[in-house]
Structure formats: C-alpha cells, structure tokens
Design brief:
The chain contains 19 helices and 14 strands. The relative contact order is 0.11. The longest helix is centred in the first third of the chain and has 28 residues, at about 85-110. The protein has helices spanning about 1-20, 30-45, 55-70, 85-110, 135-160, 165-180, 190-195, 200-220, 225, 230, 235-240, 250-260, 295-300, 305-315, 315-340, 390-415, 420-425, 460-470, 475-490, and strands at about 115-120, 125-130, 235, 270, 270-275, 285, 290, 345-355, 360-370, 375-385, 435-440, 455-460, 495-500, 505-510. The protein has a five-stranded mixed beta sheet, with helices on both faces.
Amino acid sequence: MLIQKEISQIENKIDEYLFSALDRTIPRYKFIYHMNLAYIDFVVDKKIWFTTSERHFMFSLSYNTFLAYKTLEEEEVFDFKFDKNLYIYCHQFLIKGMQYSMLCDNFSATNTGKSNVRIEKSSNSICFEKNRAPRLQYDFFCKYKIRKALSYTLQMVSGMLNENDEEDAALELSKVYLNFWNENMLYEDFEPYSRQDWGGVTLFFTQAAMRRYIKLYRNDFDIAEVDSQKMMIILSPKGSKNIADFTISKDKIMIDQVINDFIYKPLGDKLYPKANIIDAPIIKTKDGFLFVNPLILLFNDSSESRLLNYLRRYDHSRHQRVKDKLKERIIPIIMQLLKLKYPEAIVQCNFKLPIPLKKNQKRELDILIVDNATGFVLYVEVKHFFNPISYSESKNLDSELQKAISKTSEQLYAIEENWDLIKQRFGVTSDIKVKKAIILSHQYLGKDVEINKDVPIVDPSNFYESIAEAKTIAELYHANKEIDDIYTKIKMISREIDFDYAGLGLHFKRSA
C-alpha cells in the first residue's frame, strides 16, 4: 500500500507539471498557433511523419491545446505574426507533452498491473518495465501499413502530377486521397447535412491541405524551405463567412453545422481531456479566424471516421445512427463478395436464432457461411470500433474484443442447437462437420487481447484478401487464422528510453 501511495503522489505531480508550467500571460490562440508550427517543423524535419511514434506528438499537440483553453485568456484579436521566443517555448512544450504521453501510458499500465515500477529515492528516479501486450505487434503493423500506404500513394501521385500547376495537382491529389479513405459509405447512409458535405466543406479543406502537401513534396519535404507558417491553413473572419462560395452546397445553415462539427471544443474534467484535436482539427478564434494544421487534417483518419469519433464524444444519438449504418453497409458488401466467390455456399446475414434453453429469447447473428459440400460452417462476428487515443480507451476496447471472443462460442453453440431450424429456413442440406468463427473488426484489432487458438481477429482488408485467395470456406478460415498467427508472432525491437520530467529521472523498458 505504501508503494502504491508513493506512485499515486508521483503521478499527481506529473499530471500537474505542464498545467503549472504554462505561462498564463500568453494569449490563447497565439500559443495554439505556435504549437502547431512547432509540431509541423518537428515531425517533418525529424521524419516522424507516418511513424507510430507520431501519436505521442499528436497527443502533445492535442493536450497542450486543451490546456490553452483551460488556462490561457482568450484574446480579442488574433495575432498570427511569428514570435521566435514563443516558438522556442512551444517547441519545449511539444517535447514535454510527448514525454507526458509516454508517462500516461505507463502509469495507466501500472495501475492495471500491466507494468512494473521501481522507485529509486537515492537518485530521485523511476523505472518502468511494461509487459508486451499479446497483440501489440499486430496493432503496430496494421496502423503502419495503412499510413505508409497513404504516404506512398500521395508521393507517387504527386510525382505523376509534377508537370501540372499546383492548383490542378491539389485537386487531383484530393480525389485520390478521398478515394483512398473510402469507407464504403453510400449517399443514404449519411444524415442530410453530411450527404452534401463530402462535396463541400471537407473537399474545401482537403484541397487547401493538398496545396501545401504539393509544395512540400516539390521541395523534397524540406520544411525549412517551405516554412511551417505557409503550411498552416488560415481563414480570415471574412473568408470564414464566405466558405459557401467555394462549396457545392449553398445552404449556409448546413455548412455552419458541418464547420461546427470540425471545430475543436475542450471537453474533459480538470486536467483530463476527453476530446482530441484529431477529430475536430479546426481552431476558431474569438474574432472569427479559422486555422487548421494540414498534417493533422490529412493523415490520421477518413472524414467519416473523424466525424464518428467527434460524434461519439459530443452527440451520442447521432453517433449511434451513423455507426450502425457503417456496420450495416459492410455486411452486404461481404455477402455479395462471398456469393460471387463461392456460389454454391449458403450465406446468411443479420438474422436471429432462439437461445438454447431460453426459447422465448433470441440471439442476433451477423454472417453465417455454410459449405454444403463439406459441412464446414463459418460464423463471422462484425465489430465496428474507433481508434483509441489513450491507454484507458484501448483498455475498454480490448475488453470489448475479449467479450467478442467469448461470444463466438455462444454463437456457435446457438447455431449447432438450432441446426434443424437453419436447414429449414435457409436451404442448408449438410450436417455440421466443422464449425469455426472469425471476428471482423473495423479500425481496431486489440492490443492486450488473447491470441485465441481458434478465433482470429482480422480487419476488412485482410478479410477481403483472404476471400480473393481462398478456394473454399475452410481455406477462407485458415487464411484469416494464418494472418492472425503470423502478425502476432513477429518480434519487435524495442529500446530503453531515459529523460527528465517534473524534476524526476524516468527510465522505460519493455519486457519481451
């Protein structure tokens, strides 16, 4: 209990550090603007862009933005003139915020028994030894491959557009970008304002960001040559009011709603933010300026997922409506792909079966695939998650995935017990010879989730690839299981890290 009390006191001291250190005389939006300049310079110059380490710097930018709203006075007139001393100050806060992100991960892991901590009073230092989560490698590779694929795609297309003028190149690059993030959403999936937005506000800001990306590409990503100030997207109060002049929709009420959904709003108690600048990247000043960091806008998620994450925190009812439609959309796509590839198989989606021993209650199932020729039965449980931004969010999603693994055995049991009913309803002619399950998870595949010997967790892209390659339903299952086995067993090299924070010496290492 004594050691736990000491850890708690140290954690409180670390939580207070940036809050206490922030100079209250700095104008709020001037600080946030210079934080963004420091972020752009650092992640581009140090080649952190598109790496998984970038998340700690994104946390830093988001957390320091939250602190600015909580502690700094809102200025009447926004001054975005470059201030060298403030820039240096913000650079230091960017680094400290990155370190704080690492500390948050480790203290959260310590509090849940996933990390060991040793306090060295003689040297006023702390050593963390974090256990490696079973699926950490899988999570790393899935995020890496999507971000690297986006990076290479944009660079390749930018090279192909080298002879085009910047405006034309930016438009073409925007089309490629929006297609890359395609979430298989259809017009009717969105609420009325978002139906028009995808040709409106989102495209407007995406093109503005792409103009800056093109400049950076054509200068070999030399941020000193391009200048981070010229990278920022800034709209004057007049320009902000006239965005409708540059969008397809001319409905000002609708456009204002879309922009409001993109504007950052501090959410959270005390020093613990619940909102993230990734989901709402626009900063709006008191006098009506809008400014956006194009790196944050472009390279973290699709517009659909960003909107979902925003709604998850600010408008639960809207979030549920759009989220359910995303899940409903992917299931029919999978059903059509399966029917095209395996025309003799029985594919049934979104149906209910009686719960064994509870005949008055029913269990909902997502996708059932039956190979009539062999009796191989495959059940697919579809989950739609968001990308977690903190250890606690990851922990909650890991718990949901663990429940999903347990649920598959219940689903398979319900299928087995109701097999005569299934044969009668869906035209199945074979008996069950083998029954297996897969979890198809959108966005998040888990970190601290068991590697189940029978139930793989895969993302849609890997599932689609398996459909393309597998000749039978049994091969489809084994192809997905192989992906789960391989990616979770790849060894990752980790290094020990040392730095000082809040007057303490910190040492981090990860166990094998």
